[in-house]
Amino acid sequence: MPHRTCRCVVGVLSLSRMNNYLDFEQPILELEGKIAELKRMDDPQLDLRDELKRLEEKAEKLLKQTYGKLTPWQKVQVARHPARPRFGKVLSTLFPDLVTLAGDRCFGEDAAIIGGLATFEGYTVMVIGQERGADLQSRLKHNFGMAKPEGYRKAQRMMKLAEQYGLPVLTFIDTPGAYPGVGAEERGQAEAIARCIDVSLGLTVPVLATVIGEGGSGGAIALAAADRVLMFEHAVYSVISPEGCASILWRSADHAAEAAEALKITAQDLLRLGVIDAIVPEPLGGAHRHPDAALHSLRLALNEQLGLTLKHNPAERRYQRGEKFLAMGRKAA
Q1: CA distance 77 to 79
Q2: Is the pLDDT score of 92 beyond 60?
Q3: Pairwise CA distance, residues 223 & 206, whole Å
Q4: Is 328 a residue whose pLDDT tops 90?
Q5: pLDDT tens-digit profile of 231-260?
Q6: Any idea where the domains of the chain sit in the sequence?
Q7: Looking at domain 77-326, what is its CATH homologous superfamily?
Q8: Which residue intervals of the chain are DSSP H helices?
């Protein structure tokens, strides 16, 4: 963006608002800066309504054009947007009566995974999700959503409790991956993730998983072995991050955009491949622009999918869940 334009926009929009715009949204930033500038002008001799309407229509059209043709790498950026609704926002909006359960009864508490008992649309459910934080302090507290073995063992404990009392399990995925630290590996990170998948696949109660932001690696699949897997429209879900893939294949993270294209990580690709079951629509411009509208869409989708899974008896549900994951890749083979 030219420096003069940038200074003009800064004069109207706060720096924090400007930071919410991604690189490919710069033309939108300029237009919305002009709209804000016109709205700020308080001159009774000027009738700016027609100009404002024209600019607002132009901005909406540009938003539709931009978000209607996002590349996989741009979707990664949207999924990681700092203003995107995180699991904490999901809890406060959809599950305000959550009774939190803590600890794995083996090592300790892990703040990257939060869960407990709540009600949803008249059902008592077990809610489990990854919280990556909304600011620096909360990100450090929740370890950027990267759980350690005790987090996945806590999730197992909650899943088994849900099974004991016949409660549906709702999981929410938003993590770059499991924590790769030495301590986590020493305490059995891989085993904890594998056991979490095994427990989830063996449940007879309904299991719904939703990728709300970034679903990365085994840290995501640990909570996504479900009857129905949903994804927000601009979320991503992959076996490895684009940067990690590029570092392995091209020896440089500079090829992350190419890796994102090859990995087929978007909701649209994954629905076509049969990896997920439904896409939750986001408001125009992404969930970070209108979090409440995005979560309203999520509420409707979860209610619909939960109703579908409850139609099956427990034995059918567990069998179909296993077959769902065994079938992945068969057509390609």
Answers
A1: 5
A2: yes
A3: 13
A4: no
A5: 999 999 999 999 999 999 999 989 999 999
A6: 3-69, 77-326
A7: 2-enoyl-CoA Hydratase; Chain A, domain 1 (3.90.226.10)
A8: 3-12, 15-18, 26-40, 49-67, 72-79, 87-94, 136-141, 149-165, 182-186, 189-202, 217-221, 242-249, 256-263, 267-273, 291-309, 314-326
